[in-house]
Every structure is written in structure tokens, then in C-alpha cells.
């Protein structure tokens, strides 16, 4: 998927982004001499070049066959756009930008834009993903620096296109997915014999996950939960705990699996919170294990949605070629599956007393994040953001504390033999 970039950089230095960002349809725009001029500022106060850029507003204006998408920025940036199909999207890559814009603003359909979202895509890199209501191409991308107050405005001009044209433009400038590395500390040395637990807060950055009332989003909720679970497990002294993300950043599903395998994890727990439209009454916690065939239609639907996380962030969501499955790996994966089931069963057993469980709390489906063949893995859906009752629990410190306490017990029991061998004296009752 290598291609060459066709940049129209107007005078600004092409920075480290260059090698990370793949091929662009239309290219970087900047204005000659701006960084220095801006650094001095109208008020004469010098600003270090590293000051993070702020996006203060995002506006959409539809006119005839064109739609203008504008981002007001504290200073000019280099921006690159490319197209993706299925669903039709325009992906705009930027250096790190702090969006001081309400996240729910992007849900309104206007002109060629069905919706849009923005956020941190990887450390140092932000992204805007624009979902198109019909095929469109980027007619122009530019930065205007004469906005009031010294701000810069990034303008992306979308133009209606037919399907053939959309595909032609996309094919001429294919996007290459940039790798996002998991936390380096994930590669732990094995000298320390304590079990390694990788906790995976779902979604993050540009991918918010499910939405609840009052602006509550899955990515924040599960990160809080994961951090507290880590604290609880680390404090016991029995485990080494790694988070796949410890900030509001996007991590691809493949990188989450690689983080677990790279860390030689003994257990991988992915944490999510679901949402169902029109299903106020549907609630409760569910523990999933991976399987080629889903245990029921609802689980298949959920796995399908969770598996779209990469696409939501504007990444090619197709899997790389499957690893060659040899007989040894097949045996390993069978054993891993049985450990995953055992742990899932314990988890449900322990959580039963403190959490409202789903009517069918143990399910299976083809989650891409549960595909490490050698790491017992489960995916925990804490509840439904679409249920008022669940939502109240999910944001409650008391509930979280109890749920985490029960999880710690389930984890201690799962590792009981190993902890006993290592001489871990007291395992939680
Ligand atoms: Zn999720």
C-alpha cells in the first residue's frame, strides 16, 4: 500500500509527520513564514513552537454541491486528507490538536457530511474522521491565517462526486494505516515470575465507543475502570499489570492483541460498556469469550460493532493475513480457550453478588480483540449506557469499587495455584 505523496506544501517545513502519514489526496497546506510571525504574536509575546495547538471551533457550511468543513485553530498546522470507502469517509490527519469543542457536535447531518468526530489518534497526532452522506472528494484543503484574533482556519472543501470518481481518487491515493505502538513497557522481562495481566480499556481518542446520556462516553468510563482495576491488582503485589492505553488515545484492535502477546500476558481483560438503541430495558453485565461462531444474534451484533473500532478511527479495518496456524498453535489455542472459559466463569460467579448481570451473562462471539491464541482473553461489557439504571451504576464510585473488588477475587482464584507456588501468602478470600 505504499504510494507517493503529492504534497502541495506551501512553504512550511514538512515535519516528522511526513514519514508517518501515508499518501494524501490533497496535501499539506501552510502559509509561508507563518510559524515565526505567529510565534512573535501580535502582542509581542513569544510562544514556544511546541505549544500545543487548540481547535476552538468546528463549523460546517453546505452550499449547492459543496460542503465546507472548517476548524478554527490557535495556529496553522499541516493537514492531510485521504478518502476511505465502506462507509465513505474523509480522514484528516493533523499534528496533535486539543479540541475544545463539544464531542456531540459532530452528530448533525449537513450537506455532504453525515457526521464527524475528532480526537487524538496517537501521541502527537490528531485526526478528524468525516462520515459522508454521499460520495464526495476533497476539492481543496487550505489554511487561512487572516482570521480574527490571529487564529488560523483549516478549511476542507468537499465536492459531490459519483461512485466511480470517488473510487478513482481513493485508488490513486490509497491510505496506508500507520502503526500505533503499544506501550513499550508491555514488553516485560520474565525474571519477575508474577502473572502479567493486561487490561484493555476499549476505544479511545478519536473512537469514543458507545454514548450515554449527559455526554458520558464509553472510552472515558472504561479508562477510569481500568485504571482503578490496575491500582487494585498492583497494590496486592501479586501481579504485574499493564494497560493497553493509559490516556485518551486510539489503539487499533490489532495493537491491543499485540500488546497482550508482546507482554507475554497470562490474562487479557478488555473492558467495554455497550449501548443498544430502543432498548432501555436491556441491561446488565456480560462476560464474553472469543469464538468463531457467536452464541446468539445479539452477541454477533455487538462483536460486529466492537470490531468496527478501527474503521471508526479511519483505519483500514481488514485484518492482515491470518497467522499460519500450525498444529502446535492449534493445541495452544485450544488450551487458551479453556482457560478463557474458566476465567469468564469465575468472573461471572464473583460479579453475580455485586453487579446486575445480563439475563445471559456468559456469551461468545468473534471479537477481534480476543484473538491472541496464547493469552487467555475475555471481554467484559460492564453494562448498557442506554439503560438509565446501568448508567447510574457505571458512574458510581461505590459500584465500581465493588465490581473491581469482585474482579480481583476472581483473578486471585484464577491464579490461585500459581500464586501458592510462588508463595503468595494470603489470597483474597
Ligand atoms: Zn466497546
SS content category: alpha/beta
Order of strands across the widest beta sheet? 11-10-12-15-13-14
Helix percent reads 25-40%
Mean pLDDT: 80
Task: State the end-to-end CA separation.
Answer: 54 Å
Low-confidence parts: 1-50, 175-190, 425-429
Shape type: elongated
CATH topology of the largest domain: Aminopeptidase
Q: How many β-strand runs? A: 15
Which ligands are bound?
zinc ion
Order of helices and strands: HHEEEEEEEEEHEHEHEEHHHEEHHH
The structural domain count equals 2
Specify the CATH architecture of the largest domain.
Answer: 3-Layer(aba) Sandwich
CATH class of the largest domain: Alpha Beta
Radius of gyration over C-alpha positions, nearest whole angstrom: 23 Å
Question: How many helices in DSSP terms?
Answer: 11
Biggest sheet, in brief? 6 strands, mixed
Instruction: Name the CATH superfamily assignment of the largest domain.
Output: Zn-dependent exopeptidases
Proportion in β-strands: 25-35%
What is the strand and helix layout of this fold?
Layout lengths: L16 H4 L13 H7 L12 E11 L2 E8 L6 E5 L4 E7 L1 E3 L13 E10 L2 E8 L3 E9 L7 E9 L2 H10 L23 E6 L16 H19 L3 E4 L9 H10 L4 E8 L10 E6 L6 H10 L2 H4 L14 H25 L5 E9 L11 E8 L3 H7 L2 H18 L1 H6 L8
Helix pairs in contact: 4-10, 8-10
The site of zinc ion has 6 residues, from loops.
Amino acid at each position: 500500500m505504499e504510494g507517493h505523496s503529492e504534497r502541495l506544501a506551501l512553504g512550511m517545513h514538512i515535519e516528522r509527520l511526513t514519514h508517518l502519514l501515508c499518501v494524501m489526496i490533497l496535501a499539506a497546506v501552510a502559509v509561508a513564514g507563518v510559524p515565526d510571525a505567529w510565534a512573535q504574536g501580535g502582542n509581542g509575546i513569544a510562544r514556544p513552537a511546541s505549544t500545543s495547538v487548540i481547535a476552538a471551533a468546528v463549523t460546517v457550511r453546505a452550499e449547492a454541491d459543496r460542503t465546507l468543513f472548517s476548524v478554527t485553530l490557535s495556529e496553522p498546522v499541516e493537514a492531510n486528507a485521504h478518502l476511505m470507502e465502506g462507509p465513505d469517509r474523509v480522514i484528516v490527519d493533523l499534528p496533535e490538536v486539543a479540541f475544545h469543542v463539544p464531542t456531540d457536535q459532530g452528530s448533525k447531518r449537513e450537506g455532504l457530511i453525515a457526521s464527524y468526530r475528532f480526537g487524538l489518534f496517537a501521541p502527537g497526532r490528531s485526526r478528524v474522521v468525516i462520515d459522508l452522506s454521499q460520495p464526495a472528494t476533497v476539492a481543496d484543503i487550505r489554511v487561512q491565517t487572516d482570521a480574527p484574533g490571529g487564529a488560523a482556519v483549516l478549511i476542507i472543501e468537499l465536492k459531490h462526486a459519483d461512485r466511480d470518481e470517488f473510487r478513482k481518487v481513493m485508488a490513486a491515493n490509497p491510505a496506508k494505516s500507520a502503526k500505533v505502538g503499544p506501550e513499550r513497557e508491555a514488553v516485560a522481562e520474565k525474571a519477575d515470575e508474577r502473572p502479567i495481566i493486561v487490561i484493555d480499556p476499549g476505544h479511545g481518542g478519536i473512537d469514543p465507543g458507545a454514548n450515554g446520556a449527559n455526554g458520558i462516553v464509553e472510552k472515558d468510563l472504561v479508562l477510569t475502570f481500568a485504571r482503578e482495576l490496575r491500582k487494585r491488582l498492583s497494590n496486592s503485589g501479586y501481579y504485574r499489570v499493564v494497560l493497553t492505553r493509559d490516556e485518551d488515545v486510539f489503539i487499533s484492535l490489532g495493537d491491543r492483541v499485540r500488546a497482550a502477546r508482546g507482554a507475554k500476558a497470562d490474562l487479557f481483560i478488555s473492558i467495554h460498556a455497550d449501548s443498544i438503541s430502543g432498548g432501555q430495558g436491556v441491561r446488565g453485565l456480560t462476560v464474553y469469550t472469543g469464538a468463531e461462531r457467536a452464541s446468539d444474534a445479539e452477541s454477533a451484533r455487538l462483536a460486529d460493532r466492537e470490531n468496527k473500532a478501527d474503521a471508526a478511527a479511519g483505519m483500514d479495518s481488514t485484518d492482515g493475513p491470518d497467522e499460519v496456524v500450525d498444529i502446535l498453535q492449534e493445541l495452544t489455542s485450544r488450551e487458551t480457550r479453556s482457560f478463557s472459559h474458566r476465567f469468564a466463569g469465575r468472573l461471572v460467579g464473583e460479579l453475580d453478588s455485586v453487579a446486575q448481570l445480563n439475563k445471559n451473562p456468559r456469551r461468545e462471539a468473534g471479537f477481534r480483540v480476543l484473538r491472541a491464541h496464547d493469552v487467555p482473553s475475555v471481554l467484559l461489557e460492564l453494562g448498557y449506557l442506554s439503560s438509565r439504571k446501568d448508567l447510574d451504576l457505571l458512574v458510581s464510585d461505590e459500584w465500581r469499587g465493588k465490581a473491581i473488588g469482585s474482579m480481583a477475587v476472581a483473578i486471585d482464584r484464577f491464579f490461585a495455584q500459581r500464586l501458592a507456588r510462588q508463595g503468595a501468602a494470603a489470597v483474597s478470600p
